[in-house]
Amino acid sequence: MYTGLIDLPWWGYVVVTLGLTQITIACVTIFLHRHQAHRALDLHPMPSHFFRFWLWLATGVVTKEWASIHRKHHAKCETSEDPHSPIVLGIKKVLLQGYELYRKEAANKETLERYGHGTPDDWLERNLYTKHRGLGIALMLAIDLVLFGPIGLTIWAVQMAWIPLNAAGIINGAGHYWGYRNFQCADASTNIIPLGWFIGGEELHNNHHAYASSAKLSSKWYEFDIGWGYIRILQALGLAQVKKLAPQLRINLAKTVCDMETLHAVIANRYEVTAKYAKSLKQTYAEEIARIKLQASDKFDVDVARARHWLHLDETILTPQQKAKLAELTAASPTLKKAYTLRQELAAIWQRSSASKEQLLAQLEDWCRRAESSGIASLQEFSRRLRC
User: Is the pTM of this model over 0.90?
Assistant: First the structure.
């Protein structure tokens, strides 16, 4: 029986398979995601074309389709127009049928026309990568069989399943359903785990939604983004140029009033500001909810565990039923009501695009004054730090 040009022990085939899938993941996260969809970095033509070629072999993905669908996901996140929101469609459907959802949206010409600008449109893209997408996949199968013999079919099958399972399923599904959040975005994005090496750093999905145009997805010191490591290597070789990174907060404890610099920092770092707000009020919320549970009658029909989560969200993404339950909870506690109202008013400052800078600055200063006169110690401390 033909055993292929390369004969390996069983563990050697596992290493080869993981290595090949990691190349594919690198192509997706560096080329499709950070370079094409978000323009967070520029790539030299050499790695750029290698990424396109490898994606043709290992996935059959068309760059314009992938970038368009992902851009639409950001533009319509957690709405009925989001191509793959587990909040709207259900976690089971996105996890198990993520690839089908991708194919359905890829057939939507309106999506491609509206969101597909700036993607490759050269001769190779039109006449090979798009027109004969299945040819690359067949060629990869032939290569695997020639190199590894019958076991090459298994290696090929894993390669073909890797992106539909991990990107279309896990990132689009679990990345909007389970995990932790560094930033209080208006959507439900989460970081699945802090070690982003298995799926190229895409595990840090909440960080990405907070600063979509950043080439680096890690944010905290304990987070690791292997995709960023690959980009740094390309940058050192002169093959990549980073264009955008997430802004970094600076604290000036000497400041006691808000100025234009404060306003710009609050707007640029709005998701981190709301995350720090949630962290600052966490103990206050817990104490108030415990008091309500202790005093509540049997008729108090509110799931306080869920309501505690709703307190940290923009009211615009809550359903009418959730808003009604939350209103019932805050009605039982003036402290909760005041803290929740001020949280919504703070978010409204950077949502008022029609206001002038001077008006926004006045609104921010007024917000700080009301927070510091609220009588809630944690809110007063947050406001004083916000001025800094």
Answer: no
